[in-house]
Amino acid sequence: MLAEDEVEKLIKAGKVVREVRKNVPSFVSEGARVFEICEKVEEEIRKLGAEPAFPCNVGIDSVGAHYTSPPGDATIIPPGCLVKIDLGAHVDGYIADSALTVSIDSEYEDMIRVADEALERAVQAVSVGGRVADVGVAVEKTIRSRGFRPISNLTGHQIAKYTIHAGVSIPNVGPQEVGGGRFEPWSVYALEPFVTLPDAVGSVRDAMPGNILAVVKIKGPKDAMGRRLFDETYKRFRTLPFSKRWISKSESFEAWKRLVAERVFYEYPVLVESSGKPIAQGEHTVLTTKREVIVTT
Fold first, then answer.
1. 157 among known catalytic residues
2. Is residue 217 very low, low, confident or very high in pLDDT (cuts 50, 70, 90)?
3. What span, in angstroms and rounded, lies between the C-alpha atoms of 63 and 157?
4. Which of 71, 73, 121, 293 could pair with 35 in a Cys bridge, judged by C-beta atoms 3.0 to 4.6 Å apart?
């Protein structure tokens, strides 16, 4: 069971994300720099009294997840696209995670409405003690009934203190067999349907590294520069993902490369739709109590 102060921190993180989420469409426009969108979202989270739980993700069209701007990124929002903004906040490690899709005069704007509807159905499918598999059934049924296709290998996820992906995965497609666990009381879950076109493959593949890293070995390196970078990074972020933009010292980059090569840091690959088709996404975080389900974001 979560203590009262832990619940308060989860609710506060959710409120911060909810407030920033409202403003996101005003940050995203044709010609806007992705770098500035990421920085603005993260700045707004800090202004409201939380810290980013991970770098702001900006996924244009076929990019499903894990792209954030590196230092000096010149990428801009092109015309006629779908832009997914995935943002998260934490208060002392207690996390809220949410995402939305913005249309830049895209011909696929209908996919946003489908993603939002699928997210609503996903939330309705969660109950304390209920089957996790029921969410996948509800999401897939909703998406396919509207003439689109779910992304089968992207899922929602359980959330724990200082841990974005913890334990249970929340499917976006129905199971081949009944199973997959149940929603436990006093737990936190992110629900995130992904929608693509009916003629798409409907899965994502790894592409280039997306400038998002996380500590995966608690024991740091022995050399002085690497050890200093490791200690500073772990003190700031614990096991939460962080961005190259947040490593401000230029001399740190060589040490960073070594830590990735030595698998002390993990660098997330960008995930793209396997046939290059656009993706829309929606996401909310829910908190289960003993009897009810609270949408924190």
1. yes
2. confident
3. 19
4. 73
